[in-house]
Structures are given as structure tokens and as C-alpha cells.
Amino acid sequence: MERWLTLLLLFPVVFFSTVTSAKGCRRPQLNANINVAVDQMFFDPGVELALSCKDGYTPISGPRKIVCTTSGAWTATKFLCKPKLCPYPDAPSNGDLYYEDTVYQSTINYTCQEGYILSGSSTSVCQANGTWSTPVPECIAVTCGLPPIPEFGMIVYNTRVRGNTTDYGITGTYKCLPPYALFGDATAECMTSGTWTKTPECRRVTCSLPENIDRGYMSTNDQRDFDYLETIKYGCTGDYVVEGSLEIVCQQDGTWSEKPSCKAPCKIGIDRGRILYKGKKMWIGDFNPNKVLHKDIVSVWCMNNARKCGYSVSTQCIDGRLVIPECYEEPSGVNYNLYAGSLPSEIQQC
């Protein structure tokens, strides 16, 4: 009896010890992409938990369950989940796409080349089911209507245009009908916005009768206003030479282009000696009349006393003034008339 009493007294102690020696498990710490079916924080030994992948992820190894052990630890697992892949995207025709990856939650950005407008979404996201959130957009060519034509104006296209639309990048040149002048940019272009550049204006421009030039004459003396781009010609009297354009034009700002001027001829300022003019060598006394025109070139001869030889030096007529080179020494009348062969122009040349 004492033996059974002793066992009965000990049994509760053993039973209590057995219950309290087993440890429970805390909620397992798993990869963020793995799902656990229950939400509780503590689990009894022997409890099994089924593992699964979150949306957008695919299992690649097992086992797919873990068990809470009496030590308070969960059994080991190599269960992993990898992101789902979306198919490699296609670029839109006449466009480009930019992305870093094609896994779940990756993003594509679409753009169009210059001259095209995006139709559709500019972005797409890889979804949990392995498909892209939006279809590939289209890049539609930019078009413009026909450009506005200014009153009294016209446009000349750089390529053939048919119908009532024009493609992006087409250009044209505005022109005004005389006597109208163009104010603004003459070049028109269909822009990426589908509109044309700013249209210029055609305004009437006139110039009053210009004044005559000194020692010159005009091709008209009409006492009237002259239209834009009308011209008048000038000439010079006698031996005066026109310097500048013979023709002036009525300009866009209502003024004439620069008028020419009349430049005077020159007299060769020597009395004795030889000259070279237009390829001819002649004595100054035979040069009659003693006159060369503006910008004509004349050569005289100088003496190199050290080498006892002659050399020619050129000078030019500039509006009535011809400077004789300093090296020129005019011979005496005796040398000129009796000993002409000793002059610098006649002896051996340097």
C-alpha cells in the first residue's frame, strides 16, 4: 500500500514535468516572398505549417511545410520563391523602350521618336500573373494641316504635298507678290505639336525717287514712288568711273540700297620720262591725252645707283590722285633729249 501511495504522490509531479518541459514555437521568420496560411504568433510542438509563394512569385524548391519541434525551433526548409517573369517586350514601331528587368513589378517606359506621338500608355508593369499591365503603345506620325497663307503671299514647299495634310518636318518658303515685302520668318515648318511655325505678313513697301549722284545720271527721273524690289541704274559722265553697284534696289525697309559714286581720272604728273601703261611702254610726251582712269595702274622707272640698273615701280590712280613714287627722278631736258638711252627705263634692268 505504501508503494502505491508513493507512486500516486509522485505521478502528478512527473505529469506536470512532462507537460511543461515541451516548448512552443514563435511565428517563423521566412523570406518576405513566402506566405504562411495562419496569422497567430505562437504554435504548439507538432504543429505543421504549409508554405506557399505570394502573388507574383513561383516556388523553386521544397519541402513546402515546416513542423514546430519540442525544442521550440521549426524544422529546416529550402523552400524558395522567385519572381515571375514577363515576356521580353517589343519596342513600338518608330519608338523606343527603356527597362532594367522583366521580373514581377518591373516597369517599362515607352517613348516615340521625333515626329511621332505616343498613342497608349507610356508605362507598363509586370504583373503577378506574368503579363504586362498594358499593351505596347503605338507611335503615330505627327501631321499638320495646310499652312496658312498670308494675304498677298504664297508658299513653295520643299517636297510635293497632296491632299489637306502634311507630314512632320515638311518645310516651305513664304514669298510675297510684288510690291509686297515679307515681314517675319520666310521658312514654314510642320512641328512636333502638329502646328506650323508662325505665319509672316506681306506688307506693301515703296521708296521715293532717290537723288542723283555727283557727276552722274540716273536711268529715270519719274516723279513717283517706286515699289519694293524696283531698280534704278546709275552712270557717270565723261571719264568718271562708277564705283559700286550700277543698280540700286528699293529695299524692304523703304530705303534704297547703297548708291554708287563717280571717281575722277588722274593726270600723270611727270614731264619727262617713260611710263608703262596697259602693257605698253611709251614716252610721256607721246601719251596724249595725259589721263588715266580711276583704279588704272601706271609704272615709272627708278635708278638703282649702287648696281647701275633700272627698275619699274607701279602706282595707281585713286579718284583723281596718282602719287609718283619717291624714287623717281625726272631727268633734265638735256639728258631726256640727247642721252635718253642712259635713262633708268632704257638701261639694263635690275
UniProtKB/TrEMBL annotation:
Disulfide bonds join 25-68, 112-139, 207-250. It comes from the Eukaryota. One of its GO terms (cellular component) is extracellular region. SMART domains: CCP (SM00032). It is found in: Membrane; Secreted; Virion. CDD domains: CCP. Residues 1-22 form the signal peptide. The keyword Glycoprotein applies. Keywords: Disulfide bond, Glycoprotein, Heparin-binding, Membrane, Repeat, Secreted, Signal, Sushi. Residues 23-83, 84-141, 142-204, 205-264 form the Sushi domain. PROSITE patterns: SUSHI. SUPFAM superfamilies: Complement control module/SCR domain (SSF57535). Its main location: membrane. InterPro entries: ComplSys_Reg/VirEntry_Med (IPR051503), Sushi/SCR/CCP_sf (IPR035976), Sushi_2 (IPR015104), Sushi_SCR_CCP_dom (IPR000436). GO terms for molecular function: heparin binding. Pfam families: Sushi, Sushi_2. Binds to various kinds of negatively charged substances such as heparin, phospholipids, and dextran sulfate. May prevent activation of the intrinsic blood coagulation cascade by binding to phospholipids on the surface of damaged cells. This is Beta-2-glycoprotein 1.
